[in-house]
Amino acid sequence: MRIAITGTSGLLGSALSRSLTADGHDVVRLVRREPAAPDEVRWDPARGYVDTAGLTGCDGFVHLAAKSITMQRWTPAVKKAHWDSRVHGTAAVAEALAALDSPPRVFVCGSAIGYYGDTGDRRTDESAPPGEGFLADMVQAWEAAAAPAQEAGIRTVFARSGLVVSRKGGAWGKLFPIFKAGLGGRIGDGRQYWSFISLHDHVAAMRHLIDTDWLSGAVNLTAPEPVTNREVTAAMGRVLHRPTVFAVPGPLLKLAVGDFANDMLGSQRVLPSRLDESGFTFAFPTVDQAIRAVA
Fold first, then answer.
1. Per-residue model confidence as pLDDT tens digits over 223-243
2. What's the CA gap between 274 and 256, in Å, rounded?
C-alpha cells in the first residue's frame, strides 16, 4: 500500500511510519518545508495548501499533525494555537483529498477522547454525546473539519486517542524521568480515571483502522480497562521500583497552570467498544503491561 501521513516527526506519526515501512509499504510524508526526498510532499496548513500531485496513487491518508498539548496556562493565544493547528490542518487535508480525481479509499483523522469531556467514573464509549469545555469543543470542531472528505465518499475514521504510554514523547514521556528519580506521585486526589494505550497498541490500532474496510466514524484508541491516577502511580512505582510518596495537590496545580489544571484533574473512563467489536486484540491491555513494554 501507499499511505500518506502528516505528523511523521511526532511520536505517533513516526512510530506508524516505521511500522508501515518495515512491512514493505510506501509512506509519503507531508512536510511544511521544501521537499528534500522523493517520499516527501509539501503542505502548508495555515494557508490551506496541499501539493495534491504528490498524493497520486495513495491508498490511504493518516492525518496526525497537531500542536502538542503541554502543561501550560490556557491563555486565549494558547487555545487559538491549538484550535487552529487541528481545525485548519484537518480542513486543508480533507479539502485536498476531496479534490482528487482518484482519492484514497480511507482517511484516518487523528482525534482525542477529549471529545467526551469529564466523564467522572462513568464508563463511556463512542455512543456517548460530546462533553463540555474547551477540549470537547475543540475536538468537535476538529472532526467537523473533515466533512469534505466524508462528503466525497472517502471512508473517514476519527481515531480518538487516549494517553499513549511511551518514554519517547507525549504526556507519559514526561512522567518516566520524574518517577525514575523517585519523585513521582498522584495528581490531586488521584481518583480521576486515565484512559491509556501503549504505543505498540496505538500503532497496531491505526493500522487496523486502515485495513478494516467497514470501520468509519469515531473509534476510541484506549486500552480495555482505564485506571485511576492512583493506580497509575502505583503501577509506575512497581514497574520502576521507586517510591511514590509525593503528590501534587489540586490547588497548587491550579495556581501553577490555571484553567489547564481542570483538564489534568478531570476524569475520563473511556472504553474501546468499537475496536473490541471489530476484533482488535491488545498486546498490552493492562497498565502494568503497557508500562513494562517501554520501561
1. 999 999 999 999 999 999 999
2. 38
